[in-house]
From TrEMBL:
Protein family according to the UniProt entry: Belongs to the AzlC family.
Transmembrane segments: 20-38, 45-65, 71-90, 188-207
Species the sequence originates in: Phaeovulum veldkampii DSM 11550
Keyword annotations of the record: Cell membrane, Membrane, Transmembrane, Transmembrane helix, Transport
Protein's UniProt name: Branched-chain amino acid transporter AzlC
InterPro entries attached to this UniProt entry: Brnchd-chn_aa_trnsp_permease (IPR011606)
Length: 236
């Protein structure tokens, strides 16, 4: 392994992460605006984006805080929404688990939906990458995404009132997840898991925030695993 291959992996990840700026910028702007409208000051809004760095749970927390929900409800619901990161971590462990503790801490901090989606697809396409190359790719994928999240949040919090309503920034949330999920639907197990998760999430939308999504996520994982087992048995 050479420094050149590690550098190449980093810049490949960086290039792959660049398109997400098209959705990260409006997503961050939208959170900055939402935080300001909820009565948070700039330090509180930036604290959310720098310390939590998880858009979905940040929006959930701000909405509940605006509704004067109890602190425990805010924390529990935000945690429920963000539990998908535990699933992300589990799937990355076979690839990055041998890294030193401080590197794994950085991986955990910068783990967002976009960096995970890019990394897991790359690792599955190129299983022979070294640990250093995998970490470099991950760092490259994070580089254009995470800093811009901070900058966009600040811009939304400070300039939000000047952003015309017709810009419809909320389009960024569904577009982000569609862009990440579509390339991952490469097998019957992936498609089955996606259909189950969508169906259950819609059917359980009446449950308190986050609960329906968690049930749908668990059911989707079980479905995907069972389909994989069924396919393997047929092949055998």
């Amino acid at each position: 392994m050479s420094n050149r291959s590690v550098s190449a992996a980093y810049w490949q990840g960086f290039r792959h992460g660049l398109p997400f700026l098209l959705v990260i910028v409006p997503f961050g702007l939208l959170f900055g605006v939402a935080g300001a409208e909820a009565g948070l000051n700039l330090a509180e809004i930036m604290g959310f984006s720098v310390l939590v760095i998880a858009g979905a749970s940040q929006f959930t927390a701000v909405q509940l805080m605006a509704d004067n929900a109890p602190v425990l409800v805010v924390l529990a619901t935000s945690l429920a929404v963000n539990l998908r990161m535990a699933m992300y971590s589990a799937s990355l462990t076979p690839h990055l688990g041998a890294a030193p503790g401080w590197q794994k801490a950085l991986v955990a901090y910068f783990m967002v939906d976009q960096s995970y989606a890019l990394a897991i697809q790359d690792y599955e396409r190129q299983p022979d990458r070294s640990l250093a190359e995998k970490l470099a790719y991950y760092a490259g994928a994070c580089s254009p995404v995470c800093p811009q999240w901070y900058v966009s949040t600040w811009a939304g919090a400070t300039l939000g009132q000047a952003i015309p309503p017709e810009f419809a920034l909320d389009f960024a949330v569904p577009i982000t997840f569609l862009a990440m999920l579509a390339p991952m639907l490469r097998s019957a197990a992936h498609v089955a898991a996606a259909l189950v998760s969508v169906g259950l999430a819609l059917a359980l939308a009446f449950l308190p925030a986050g609960v329906g999504l968690l049930i749908a996520a668990v059911a989707a994982m079980v479905t995907g695993a069972q389909v994989e087992l069924w396919i393997e048995r047929r092949r055998a």
